[in-house]
Design goal:
The structure is a homodimer. Chain A has seven helices and three strands, in the order ααβααββααα. By secondary structure, chain A is mainly alpha-helical. In chain A, a hairpin with a 7-residue loop joins β2 and β3. In chain A, α1 packs across α5, α2 packs across α4 and α3 crosses α4. The radius of gyration of chain A is 20 Å and the shape is globular. The first copy, chain A, binds a DNA duplex through α4.
DNA sequence: TATTGTTATACTCTATAACTATA
DNA sequence: TATAGTTATAGAGTATAACAATA
């Protein structure tokens, strides 16, 4: 897999080819792209709803996976247990989610979104989806947009290989 | 563009379709994928070379764009000016980069990487590229890997549309 | 008046350690 | 012994405000 791809200019200032290039570093391109998605989130959800990115994700995951535990959430998001506790605290104090003791395992607390939480998550997601699509429309076709989502998902699936955690298996 | 894409199961627990889905949120998939790329960076560069992601990116951008200014770097990375000053301080104290007064604009400091900085950046990038490719090999074909880089770059190009900053134009 | 770069400072977010309760 | 959840605390990272120097 040489660096010859598409029609990009792969030459370096000094004219050497085959140089290790930042533009081919996935992590770098992800960070650059995240500048855009972060801005979209902030404008469409962060400011209007007063939700941090993590809060939104936690809330939505609870909505889409009712009855999950804190530990499961922590693994899914690669966040430490104390932090999950804090984020759930904030969501619960706003009446968006609630903790319910588990019947099977008395250590565990099951998470459910309140009707308000469900409504907020749904509204927030719809706003983001619309805004992302609009922001990308000038640069990505609808097909490319869909492909990008698929490829990113595949990257996320490589998580088990890179870190020893057994998470990300539930695709939560 | 309805949610019917590929062969994914687009049904929700309650059986309703067309629900706003987290899996279609670009920002969410980016965050999930970033868990992988962050882990790769940490293992391949962060720990071995003692470089933070921002430090590595700043260093490499200086290597690839000698003579740039701090302000230009700050815009390219969407980082505030005080933070760039701090990161450059750390790189300069390690002898990886140096600040040189500009002849044209006496306010400006031009950035250059030292030979050590160039060598470190090159080694780090090579390690990341190899490790990323290896980590993705089981989940992405070489073609998919290349397409992903292209699509992320296009997303990054949507930056001008989403925020009022005139940055990202130099493709630095 | 705007821009470059710096300093000082506060805030947000995350990580670690220690603990209780349960399995 | 391992896991779920919490608390307390420290650290890393980022942002804001104010400033000096130059354009």
């Amino acid at each position: 897999m040489p660096s010859k791809r598409f029609h990009r200019a792969d030459t370096t200032p000094a004219g050497r080819l085959e140089e290790a290039r930042l533009h081919d570093v996935l992590g770098y391109q992800m960070a650059q792209a995240a500048i855009v998605t972060d801005a979209v989130f902030k404008a469409q959800v962060g400011q209007p709803f007063g939700l941090r990115p993590v809060e939104y994700t936690v809330l939505t995951l609870i909505v889409e996976n009712p009855g999950g535990s804190l530990a499961r959430l922590a693994r899914a998001l690669a966040v430490t247990a104390p932090n999950i506790t804090m984020w759930i605290d904030r969501l619960e104090s706003r009446g968006l989610v609630r903790r319910t003791p588990s019947a099977n395992d008395r250590r565990s607390l099951l998470l459910y979104a309140t009707p308000q939480g469900q409504a907020l998550a749904r509204a927030a997601t719809q706003r983001i989806l619309d805004a992302e699509r609009q922001a990308m429309a000038a640069h990505l076709t609808a097909g490319e947009h869909a492909i990008l989502l698929e490829l990113l998902h595949k990257v996320a699936c490589a998580r088990a290989a890179v870190s020893g955690d057994g998470a990300a298996s539930s695709d939560v």
